[in-house]
Structures are given as C-alpha cells and as structure tokens.
Automatic annotation (TrEMBL):
PROSITE patterns: FAD_FR (PS51384), GLOBIN (PS01033). Gene3D superfamilies: Globins, Nucleotide-binding domain of ferredoxin-NADP reductase (FNR) module, Translation factors. This is Flavohemoprotein. It comes from Paenibacillus tianjinensis. The record marks Y29 as: Involved in heme-bound ligand stabilization and O-O bond activation. Binds 1 FAD per subunit. Binds 1 heme b (iron(II)-protoporphyrin IX) group per subunit. The gene is hmpA. GO terms for molecular function: nitric oxide dioxygenase NAD(P)H activity. Its cofactor is FAD; heme b. The lineage of its organism: Bacteria, Bacillati, Bacillota, Bacilli, Bacillales. Its EC number is 1.14.12.17.
Amino acid sequence: MLSQQTRDIVKSTAPVLAEHGTTITSVFYRNLFEAHPELLNVFNHANQAQGRQQAALANAVYAAAVHIDNLENILPAVVQIAHKHVSLGIKPEHYPIVGEFLLKAIKEVLGDAATDEILTAWEEAYGVIADAFIGVEDSMYKEAREQENGWNFFKPFTVARKVQESGNITSFYLKPADGSNVPDYKPGQYISVRVLIPGEKYTMIRQYSLSQAPKPDEFRISVKREEANDPNGVVSVYLHNQVNEGDTLEVSAPAGEFLLDATKTTPVAFISGGVGITPMISMFETVANVTPDRPTVFLHSARNEALAAFTQDVEKHAAAMSNVKTKTFFSSGPDGVITGETLKNYVDITGDAYVCGPVPFMEAMIRELHALGMKEEQIHYEFFGPALQLDNH
C-alpha cells in the first residue's frame, strides 16, 4: 500500500504532468530506445513518429496521478492497455526498465523541481501500478495459453488465401502452420501480426481486427493499404505487395475488449467508417449466425464505391436476418455522410450501438448518439492505435 504522504506528493504533481507530460514521455522514449534498442522490436515506430504513443503514455501517467487514492478508477484503462501489452508480448521484466527511464525523464525535464521526495514517491507509485499491470497481464497470458488451441506470444501461421475486398482493403485468411485449429474468440477482438521486412533492422508488430465470425480453423484479417510514405503504411504495403498465399506470418492470440455481447436480443446498430468496418463485419456475421431475429442496423461510410469493402458480405448476412436495415454512404456522392438525422431514422436508442472508424468520424457519431439520448454504457467504440482522448460531448 502507498503511504498517504506518497499519494499526496503524487497528486500534487498532476498539474505539472498535465503541462509537461508529452515532453517527459518523448524524452523517456528517446532515452529508452537509445539504451535498449531491442525494445524497438515491440513498439510501433509509426505511433512514435506521430507522437501518439507519447501522448497516450502521458495521459495514462496523468490519470494515475489524479486517481492515486482510488486506482480502481483506472482499472478499465489498465485492462484495455493490458490487452494490447499481451498482444505485443510485453513481459514482467520490461517493467523495471520502463520505470527506470520514466523516472530519469521526469528528472531530466523538471530539473531541480523534481526533488528526491517527488522521485521517491513516483518510484513507489510506479511500482504499485506496474504490479497491477503485471498481475492483470499474467492472468490474461494464462487464459490465452490454457484455452483450447491457445498459446502465448507469437506463433507461425500460413496465409491460406489472399482476397482483395476493395480498392484499398485486402483480406488474409490465416491458418496455424502446425495444422492445429485456432482458439475461439469474441467478435470485435484483434490479433497482432509480427513481420521482419527485408531491409529493416527491427521486427514490426501491428494489430488487426478479426474480420469474420469465429471459425474453428482460421483467422481472417482485412488490411487497408496505407500510403507507402506514411509511417503507418510500412507494414500494410508489405502485406499487400509482398506477402502471398503460402507465406508465413507470426501471429499472437486474440485479444481486446471491444466485444459484441452475442447473447443479447435487444436492438443493435453497427456504425463504421472506412476500415473501421473490419470488427463490425465479424459482429454482424455473428448476429446473422446466432440471433438472426435481433433488430439490427448496419450503417457504413466509405469515400466511394471502389473503396467500399464487404458489400456482398453485408448483403449475404442481412439475407439471413428477419429484422435488419443496411445502408452504405459514399462521402463523395449525393447521400454524403452519416448525419444525426440518419441516426435518428435508423437507430433504436433503447439498444446498443457499436462505432468504429477514423477518430473524427467516431467523435461525430458518438456525439450524435448522445444527443439522441443514448447513454455512455449503450455506446461501444474502439480506436485503432493508442487510445486518444475522445472529444464527444
């Protein structure tokens, strides 16, 4: 347990963290990778380049400082991040290294203002928070390992099929290279794919939503091809251009908490933009298979027809349902984007809504759903990449 004095000191530093957080975390990552370049095999270089990882860590550290008296308040965030950590293969021995460099960064940025008393308090607090993560992750690893067909860390999978879904989205059907089956997963979960691209020094890991309802013997991911000069594009361009049927990819077990409750029969709406359709199609297919009478709405926004993926899948699944409405909006066309008026006409606000897509799209959709009277607990959403602060009120 943390002493009251330690908690008081940590809380008193929260405003300083709010002000200098991203500077501290930028210094932290720079120094960490200089001393431990092998960790570049785990961290997403693109999120580093764009500052997203630094901002996400700064938000997490700030939240810990504010809630140091009631750390259970940040448990949902811990669980969400722990899913990512397990998917990346983060281990208990990584935590002391991170703690050491976080404290050094606080000292470097704050200078004399970071007294020994403040650094000692933060060292204690970090120890408690790290133990919480290690504990949560340990039970997640255990569950992943002990489930049927489960494993920990990365396992070789063969690309069984490669199918183009639209102008910029391609699906990869993945089967375990050892001929075994895959574990069951919840619609909405993701896997990590680890690649060593020729000419690159470090492996790269990316998370991709599983884009079909669970099948016993395969995973499907559907990857949007980003621009090659975009730091986010390196892995997607490699998968699109160089990974072919018969090739091997390293894959981690399914993770994540953006889940469809497949037992519910109350109304549900799936609202997606762009590649945000990938977890939705898995959920939509599951409703078609498990609760085909459930009142269901599927709204999708794409730039144009050439970039609209899964149009036939949506039609096929919808045909199996008795109470379903679907519509695709093309932002370059006359019916344009999904508006508050659209949502009012389609969405039953007594049920649940699932939202996924680019951040501005999600902010707009969540704001409009709130305006229609939906409560926080009825609206489920997922970011691709480090969780950002959502501006949806």
